[in-house]
Design goal:
The complex is a heterodimer of chains A (210) and B (272). Chain A is 12% helix and 30% strand. With 210 residues, chain A is an alpha+beta fold. In chain A, the strands form three sheets. Chain A has a six-stranded antiparallel sheet with strand order 1-12-3-10-7-6. Chain A has a four-stranded antiparallel sheet with strand order 2-11-4-9, covered by helices on one side. The relative contact order of chain A is 0.34. Chain B has 272 residues and is an alpha+beta fold. Chain B contains seven helices and twelve strands. A six-stranded antiparallel sheet of chain B has the order 1-12-3-10-6-5. The N and C termini of chain B lie far apart (49 Å). The model of chain B has no long low-confidence stretch (mean pLDDT 95). Classes of the chains: A alpha+beta (210), B alpha+beta (272). Chains A and B meet through helix 1 and helix 2 of A and helix 1, helix 3, helix 4 and helix 7 of B.
Chain lengths: 210, 272
């Protein structure tokens, strides 16, 4: 766990993201972005794309490969599919975030929870709508980071979404090493513990480069 | 606290999740079915429509009709072979390693499991593979990883091979998403550290049955975490044949409730 020296009062931008909603925005090289889990245990599905060329995007596999660790936390460098450093996690008051279990979708919900759950909002619905704002489509949606989502991978391979570790007001903060488009889905899932079975709002703050 | 759902709805969702998790992680029943399912034939040479040797460090790509089986064999202990699959009729649908591990409640993917697409459908069934050797978490080699592992440039890597393979089907870098790595026994320790299991059996073969018509790409380049300080990928053999029609109790289609639901989705999608 690490703390931040940044003061919210000095943030250049503050975006309130309602429960279950999507958000996207530009984070320029040198800027810091903070995602605040206002009420705790709220998964925030997040993707990054190079603003200069969106074919370069966050790669969950390259990120865990380089870190030799399955979880994202303070110090994790987010790596692109071209092997470049996109952002670094500079502060994290939670300690562990998932990047191996992907985002929920209407389609995968039917497989995970039964076909009666088909008509529920899902992260990939938010992602494609936000991606469209930047000229991208479903084709561009790749495996994401799930901030505040707790998915231990056991030595015997067992993997499950379990109760989140984040408490009200916990946050992660990242510094951008290139201009990036950030897509967020404030996860609407109500069928597993990733949101404490109750989706809640988040804040996104952006500070200009010092 | 913000709350959009009733306490009753939340309690029902919690109870269902606990039930699904308990049954999804009940390995004993599934492992017994895997053990009792006969191995695929060792020699399929009389049935194949394609047999090709892929030199170490090279790649392969092709199209599999629904129901065809792709066998990837390695005579020597393999250091990993990276795999991508796309739905040939709509290439925005592709293999999704994250959904594959999440939906099946395990990162140890092998015989009896399915590879899931991003559309909640089974894209391929794993008819044969050593247990826990299809790595869905750690990705494949890149120019950077080869430089780190071997201390020099110039070795072929999966990242570049996938772009080349994709290009030969009209696809590009945007279509090259996360991959599955065959012959790659990756393990996660209690702290999330990733390790190659040196004790796992190397070599043998992986048989994948296409559950829709797919474009497949293989990169025969060592996994970045595989042992060995020198770049020495061994040749692999690729064979394709028409699989037997799946029986009503087909292991991959009926091994778990999740697989059954994925195949409902696959069957509901009428292929052009």
């Amino acid at each position: 766990m690490t703390v931040s020296a940044l003061n919210p009062a000095d943030a250049a931008q503050r975006h309130a993201v309602a429960a279950t909603a999507g958000w996207s925005g530009l984070v320029r090289a040198g800027q810091n972005i903070r995602i605040v889990d206002l009420e705790g245990q709220q998964a925030v599905d997040t993707l990054f794309y190079s603003a200069a060329d969106t074919a370069e995007r966050y790669s969950a596999q390259d990120t865990v490969q380089r870190a030799r660790n399955a979880y994202v936390g303070a110090g994790t460098v987010l790596i692109s599919n071209d092997g470049n450093e996109m952002l670094t996690v500079t502060a994290d008051t939670v300690g562990r975030h998932d990047t191996s279990a992907g985002a929920c979708s209407v389609e995968s919900n039917t497989v995970r929870f039964g076909h009666e759950t088909r008509h529920l909002h899902a992260c990939r619905e938010n992602f494609v709508v936000e991606a469209a704002r930047w000229g991208m489509t479903k084709r561009d949606i790749v495996s994401n980071i799930n901030f505040f989502m707790n998915v231990p991978i056991e030595p015997d391979g067992r993997l499950a979404i379990v109760d989140g570790l984040s408490e009200p007001g916990n946050f992660v903060e990242l510094v951008a090493h290139m201009d990036v488009i950030c897509l967020i889905s404030n996860c609407p899932q109500i069928n597993n513990p990733c949101n404490g079975f109750n989706p809640t709002p988040i804040d996104v703050l952006i500070w200009d480069a010092p | 606290m913000t709350q959009a759902f009733s306490d009753e709805t939340i309690a029902a969702a919690k109870a269902r999740y606990q039930r699904l998790k308990a049954s999804g992680q009940d390995a004993a029943a599934f492992d017994t079915r895997v053990a009792n399912t006969p191995a695929t034939p060792k020699d399929v040479s009389g049935r194949t429509r394609l047999t090709e040797t892929v030199p170490g460090g090279w790649y392969w790509h092709g199209v599999l009709a629904k129901g065809e089986v792709l066998r990837v064999s390695s005579a020597a202990p393999a250091s990993g072979v990276a795999l991508l699959l796309w739905n040939a009729h709509d290439t925005s649908e592709r293999v999704n390693p994250a959904d594959t591990v999440k939906i099946q409640w395990t990162a140890h993917v092998g015989k009896g499991r399915v590879l899931l697409s991003d559309m909640g459908r089974a894209i391929a069934s794993i008819l044969s593979a050593p247990a826990g050797t299809l790595d869905c978490v750690c990705g494949a080699s890149t120019p950077w990883s080869n430089r780190q592992k071997y201390g020099e440039d110039g070795h072929f890597n999966a990242h570049d091979h996938f772009i080349k393979a994709a290009s030969k089907h009209g696809l590009g870098k945007r279509d090259v998403g996360p991959c599955v790595h065959l012959f790659s026994p990756l393990r996660t320790d209690g702290e999330g550290g990733l390790h190659w299991d040196d004790g796992a059996a190397g070599g043998g073969h992986v048989d994948l049955r296409a559950e829709m018509t797919v474009i497949a790409a293989l990169a025969n380049c060592p996994h970045p975490l595989s042992p060995g300080a020198s770049y020495a990928p061994q040749p692999i053999t690729v064979e394709i044949w028409q699989g037997d029609p799946p029986a009503d109790d087909d292991l991959c289609r009926t091994g778990t409730d999740e697989a059954r639901r994925a195949f409902i989705n696959t069957a509901a999608w009428v292929q052009p």
